[in-house]
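Reviewer 2 asked us to include a model.

Predict the structure of this chain.
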Amino acid sequence: MKNIVLIGGGVLGSQIAYQSAYKGFHVTIWLRSESSIERAKPKLQRLHDIYIRELTAAKTSKGPYSAGLLENGRTYTEQEIDARIAHADSALRDIRLTTELADAVKDADLVIEALAEVAQQKIEFYEMLAPLLPPKTILATNTSTLLPSSLAQYTGCPERYLALHFANNIWALNTAEIMGHPGTDPDAYEAVAQFAEEIGMVALRLKKEKDGYILNSMLVPFLMSAQSLWAEDVADFETIDKTWTLATGAPMGPFRILDIVGITTAYNILTNIPASADPTTTYGKMAKRLKEEYIDTGKLGINSGEGFYQYQ
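Predicted model (structure tokens):
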């Protein structure tokens, strides 16, 4: 694999694209509109600034390093660090952003779809993409909670379709969960696992389909529990976070994590639950507050500068 195409430049789409470019792959991001391109550029610049800051600090540190940037357990010369900084600079410079889908995918080895967590949006996109994909191309989805078997029939290449799920802040929390469906070609599965390792991830191979994979099967119920306490006015979000961090020693609470995940993603996961349509249910109260107090006011999380908390 050499040519990687990201579908969507949101929180994770931009991270996967930048990390792949940092590791030497040719990367294109397809976006729906010119305004989407303009929204993606600051995300890529933010990632560049983080990489440069961490790499520069590594010149005077023996670690630990963010595992997607540098290998822990070895010492780097200043020249080696400078070479990695050059990789970060070229990643920002060389990532191509386009609204032309056919041109974006015409020579793609791997297309990674990172659209919103809404099944119908993914289906409509796959039906548009299917006639454009070269026979060699593997299609992966970064869905957080949907099963690839529920979407494979719409892709035009079900045997080359699977899920590739990343944790947020992938340069530091470098996991990549690989999950096929019963019709996934084992060779496509292994090719994606190898790609994950080549961009500095730890490839976590799932033996069978599970909505939520490994990580989100544990994380989503935790975040839902926190949101239910907040939506039912049991406690404010600061108190809920404080309870979790003080009682467990965790570095951050659930609402800090929600800001990193992105409020829109959290909302989309909620709206996949039928009960969220009823504003009298706990799920409905959670969805209503997220939309009215955060999404409608532009407080989308850390990438927008404000979510539950404010960020510089």
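The longest strand covers residues 161-166. The mean pLDDT is 96. We have added this to the supplementary material.
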